Amino acid sequence: MPNMYKEAVEKYGKEHQLIVTFGELSECAAEIAKHMIPDREHNEEDLVDELADVHIMLQQMHIIYGNKLSLSIDKKLCKLRKHIEEDKYEQKQ
Q: Per the structure, how many domains does the chain have?
């Protein structure tokens, strides 16, 4: 599977895949919003499909941005670890 991500980036190019990523993120955000509105009809399968699309595009972004993205992810995870340890996020009731 990982080779398919690289193939897509090589075939369509960085700029095109950035545009596609933007579109998939927008569609996912809209689907998440449906799930947040009380009494709004939503389909969990639709959300899962949008999350899958985003995941695929983010894997391609990892190919494009490589080590820079990995370093940023590591930094953000360290920050999250600190927040968890300091109990900065609200816990789910």
A: 1
Classify residue 27 as exposed, middle or buried by CB count within 10 Å of its CB (0-12, 13-18, 19+): middle
Rounded CA separation 25/19 (Å)? 10
Q: What is the pTM of this model?
A: 0.84
In a domain, 34, yes or no: yes
Residue 42 to residue 39: CA distance in whole angstroms: 9
- The alpha carbon of 35 is separated from its chain's Cα centroid by a whole number of angstroms, namely 17
Inter-residue contact 1 to 17 (CB < 8 Å): no
Higher per-residue pLDDT: 39 or 90: 39
